[in-house]
C-alpha cells in the first residue's frame, strides 16, 4: 500500500529540477499557480508562485523535507496559509492597526482579532500569486505588484523575491521592495522548520545570537525597550531545547543588533545529525513555536496533518510595531529607494549537535 508520505516523496522526485516549472492549479483570481525546483551541492528547494512560497527543502541522504508544507496547492489556500511564504508588505504586527506617516495617521486593516494588523492584512503578499521573472537550475526570481491601499498602506509597491542555492548548499533568500509613495515595508520569509521530519519540536535544540528580546503584551505587541534574555525562558545564547515543560509560549522578536547590509549569524537549530544555520542582514529574528498550527484535514509532507508545535518559524525581519516606535529600526520606505533583506539558511548533516 502506498502511504501519503510515499506519495509526497514520489512527487518531489518526479518533479525534477532539470524539468523546469510545473502547474499546480489556479489561484482564487484564476491565475495559474506554478512550482519549480532549484538544486545545488546536495540541497533541493521547491518554490511556488503562490505567496513566493518555499514548499519543500531537502538534503541528499535525508529522506524527509526539512520544512513543513505540502506538494499540493489546496492546503496553502486554507490552514497552511503563510507556511513558507513571504509575508508582508509589513511583516508581524502593527498595534491598533494604525500608524503615523508623513504627518497623518494611517488607518490600517485590523485583520487579527479586530485590533492589530498582521503581515500586511488579509490581502498581503503571502496570499497573492507572484510571477516568475527568471529561473535557472540553481536560482529563481519572482515579482509582485501590490496596488495602492493594500491593507491601508500607501503604494503602489513593487516586490521581488530571489531564491538561490549557493556552492555550499545554503539557500539564500533576497527580498526587495520599492514604492511610488512614502510607505512602510518589512518583508520576511515565514518557513516552519522541522529538521527530523517527526512533526514535533521535541528533539530540537535552538541557539540564538541575541542578548536581548522584546517582551510583549497579550496581543503580542512589544511593551517597549528590549530586555535582557539572561535568567529568562528566552535565553538561547547556548543551545537548549526549543520547548521544555513549563516554558511559556514562544512568539517573540530577538534583537540581533543593527548592522545594515551585513550578514551575521542569527541562530542555529539542530537535531541529532542535522543542523540549520541562519544568517541575516536584519536586526531582528521573530521566533514562533507553532503553538497554533492545525492543518486538518490536509496532510503535510510526513503524511499526516500538522498539529501544534509541528515546526518552528524563524522569521528574520525588522522589529514588530516599528511604524509606531521611532526608537526601533525603521521600516520606512521612501520613493526611489529600495528596501533589501538577505537571509541565508544553511542546512547540513552533522555529528552530535552542540555549540558552534
Overview in brief:
3% of the residues lie in helices and 38% in strands.
- Secondary structure tally, helices: 1
Estimate what percentage of residues fall within beta strands. 35-45%
**Strand pairing plus helix content: what structural class?**
mainly beta
Note the main sheet. Answer: 9 strands, antiparallel
C-alpha end-to-end distance? 43 Å
User: How would you name the oligomeric state of the polypeptide chains in this document?
Assistant: single chain
**Gross CATH architecture:** Distorted Sandwich
Order of helices and strands: HEEEEEEEEEEEEEEEEEEEEEEEEEEE
- The average pLDDT is 93
Rough outline: globular
| Rg over alpha carbons | 19 Å
CATH topology: Beta-galactosidase, Chain A, domain 5
CATH class value: Mainly Beta
Number of domains: 1
Could you list the spans in which at least 5 consecutive residues all have pLDDT below 50? 1-18, 352-356
Helix content: under 10%
Q: What is the number of E strands?
A: 27
Topology record:
Elements (H helix, E strand, L loop, with lengths): L3 H11 L7 E5 L5 E9 L2 E6 L4 E7 L25 E3 L5 E3 L2 E4 L2 E4 L8 E3 L12 E5 L3 E8 L10 E9 L5 E9 L3 E2 L3 E3 L1 E2 L11 E4 L3 E2 L13 E2 L11 E2 L9 E5 L8 E8 L2 E7 L3 E5 L23 E6 L14 E2 L4 E12 L7
Antiparallel strand pairs: 1-2, 2-3, 3-4, 5-15, 6-9, 7-8, 10-11, 11-12, 12-13, 13-27, 14-26, 16-25, 17-20, 17-22, 18-19, 18-21, 21-24, 22-23, 23-27, 24-25
Amino acid at each position: 500500500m502506498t502511504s501519503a508520505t510515499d506519495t509526497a516523496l514520489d512527487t518531489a522526485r518526479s518533479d525534477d529540477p532539470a524539468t523546469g516549472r510545473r502547474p499546480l492549479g489556479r489561484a482564487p483570481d484564476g491565475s495559474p499557480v506554478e512550482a519549480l525546483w532549484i538544486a545545488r551541492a546536495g540541497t533541493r528547494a521547491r518554490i511556488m508562485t503562490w505567496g513566493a512560497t518555499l514548499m519543500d527543502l531537502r538534503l541528499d541522504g535525508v529522506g524527509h523535507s526539512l520544512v513543513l508544507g505540502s506538494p499540493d496547492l489546496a492546503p496553502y489556500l486554507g490552514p497552511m496559509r503563510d507556511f513558507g511564504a513571504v509575508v508582508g508588505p509589513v511583516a508581524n504586527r502593527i498595534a491598533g492597526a494604525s500608524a503615523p506617516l508623513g504627518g497623518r495617521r494611517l488607518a490600517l486593516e485590523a485583520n487579527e482579532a479586530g485590533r492589530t494588523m498582521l503581515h500586511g492584512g488579509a490581502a498581503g503578499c503571502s496570499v497573492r500569486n507572484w510571477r516568475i521573472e527568471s529561473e535557472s537550475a540553481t536560482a529563481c526570481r519572482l515579482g509582485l505588484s501590490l496596488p495602492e491601499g493594500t491593507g491601508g498602506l500607501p503604494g503602489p509597491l513593487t516586490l521581488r523575491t530571489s531564491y538561490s542555492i549557493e556552492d555550499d548548499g545554503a539557500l539564500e533568500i533576497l527580498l526587495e521592495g520599492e514604492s511610488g509613495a512614502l510607505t512602510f515595508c518589512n518583508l520576511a520569509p515565514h518557513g516552519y522548520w522541522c529538521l527530523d521530519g517527526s512533526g514535533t519540536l521535541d528533539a530540537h535544540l535552538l541557539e540564538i545570537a541575541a542578548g536581548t528580546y522584546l517582551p510583549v503584551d497579550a496581543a503580542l505587541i512589544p511593551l517597549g525597550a528590549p530586555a535582557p534574555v539572561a535568567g529568562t525562558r528566552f535565553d538561547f545564547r547556548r543551545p537548549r531545547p526549543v520547548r521544555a515543560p513549563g516554558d511559556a509560549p514562544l512568539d517573540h522578536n530577538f534583537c540581533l543588533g543593527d548592522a545594515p547590509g551585513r550578514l551575521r549569524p542569527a541562530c542555529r537549530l539542530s537535531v541529532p545529525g542535522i543542523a540549520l544555520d541562519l544568517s541575516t542582514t536584519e536586526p531582528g529574528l521573530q521566533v514562533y513555536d507553532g503553538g497554533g498550527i492545525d492543518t486538518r484535514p490536509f496532510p503535510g509532507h510526513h503524511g499526516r496533518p500538522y498539529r501544534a508545535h509541528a515546526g518552528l518559524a524563524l522569521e528574520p525581519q525588522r522589529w514588530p510595531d516599528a511604524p509606531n516606535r521611532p526608537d526601533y529600526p525603521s521600516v520606512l520606505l521612501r520613493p526611489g529607494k529600495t528596501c533589501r533583506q538577505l537571509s541565508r539558511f544553511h542546512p547540513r548533516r552533522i555529528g552530535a549537535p552542540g555549540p558552534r
